[in-house]
Amino acid sequence: MVAEVVDLLGTAEVVVDMTVGAGGHTAALLDAGVRDVVGVDRDAAALERTEAALASYGDRIRLVRARFSEVDEETVGGTVGGVLFDLGVSSMQLDQGERGFSFRTDGPLDMRMAGAADDEPSAADLVNELPEDELADVLYHYGDERRSRRIAAAIVRRRPIRTTDQLAGIIVSAVGRRPGGPHPARRSFQALRIAVNRELEELTASLPHAAGLLDPGGRVVVISYHSLEDGIVKRSFRDDDRLHVLTRKPAVPTDVERTSNPRSRSAKLRAAERIEAAA
After folding, report:
1. How does the average pLDDT of the chain come out, rounded?
2. What is the domain partition of the chain in residue ranges?
């Protein structure tokens, strides 16, 4: 939803891209006339690639390795005109089998956004160590997986599990696969990724901080891909008396974008504007 992001943030002087990833949104904002972008990501490898890809913009971009919840005025260098969150896992990370995010590509069962350097538990740790009922709860609450109990039981029977192929195969054997339908491991992989990276906790903590970073008239834009994320954004915007909600209902990708980029099909964009000066 690059066009929508540029429409909402393209007139700001400084924007914080909290999920800079491969730099697509950042490049579009700089091309639209944004003076400077602070690009944030917890993935050091992604930042290295982004630095190379956006080198032509020179000192108009500054890259910072941090979690959402660690970004404050000191990190950014003051208040700003816009903050952007594009949540979930990037296409770049999905396509790297060694990162362990995808059920379509074999690799170690990792899923940590910061990579193996992160000392937090990996997806393999959760899959192999959580009690069956806790594992089922993770799959149900974070993945909307209605067959979570059956999948969790199959996983526990087949432990230890070390690779994405192993896990995807166990899920398929537990619940079957409908020809032409979505892959049955999709929701479970999503749930594990959210749990590993504490994505909902990070988002909940960071949204009020993002509102505090904004100049009067500044905007915060969030693109989410999961109903739990969207609910957190909706409530945070609604309950923050510093913000005026710009999207009564979330914007969604156009038919053209969904066709050209199937990974965008579940995206929902919400935006709000700062209506008072920081204290």
Report:
1. 91
2. 2-92+199-274, 121-197
Question: What's the burial of 172, exposed, middle or buried (CB within 10 Å: 0-12/13-18/19+)?
Answer: middle
pLDDT at 278 over 50: no
Within 10 A of 20 (CB to CB), how many other CB atoms are there?
28
Contacts of 185 (CB under 8 A, 6+ apart): 103, 167, 168, 171, 172
For the chain, report the end-to-end CA distance as a whole number of angstroms: 33
Architecture of domain 121-197: Orthogonal Bundle (1.10)
Q: Residue 6 is which amino acid?
A: V
Give me 217's structure tokens: 């008239």
| Predicted TM-score of the model (pTM) | 0.89
Residues 6+ apart with CB under 8 A from 102: 94, 95, 164, 189
Q: Assign domain 2-92+199-274 to its CATH superfamily.
A: Vaccinia Virus protein VP39 (3.40.50.150)
Residues 6+ apart with CB under 8 A from 45: 115
Distance of CA 42 to the CA centre of its chain: 11
Write out the two tokens for 20: 């800079």
Q: What is the pLDDT of residue 97?
A: 52
